[in-house]
Amino acid sequence: MLRTYLEFVLTRIFGTGVDTLVLWICSDFIFKSYFGVYILSPIISFEFAVLSNFLWSYLWIWKSRIEGKCWADFWKRFIIFNLASVTGFLIKMFFLLIFEKIFGWDVVVCNLAALLISGLANYFLADMLVFKQKTAKEAI
Fold it and tell me: At 68, phi and psi to the nearest 5?
């Protein structure tokens, strides 16, 4: 489990880079309003990070839990992963907005601080829901 968690953390660091890069591009070059910068930009960057994180999870972290890889399985898990990630996203957005209101930090700094909190929820949802290990009874 420790190895899996460390792999999760490594790939999420990459996902955080994807999230932060897309957020920076959107908030500095595309959107100028509060809604665009603090709501739309994080939503867009979130979806890019979800795709990156799912690919790492599916192809590396939990690949041993996936029997018979096929497009149907891939898309089914991606949809569940995306829905589970929304929970983590809502946690992230809650803290992002709280940090902005309390501290007045830049959106990128608020996002990084909020990602630290939401990361644990994301790990447990992926491990226990999306890529859950089959019990001996289910394997038969």
Answer: 55, 65
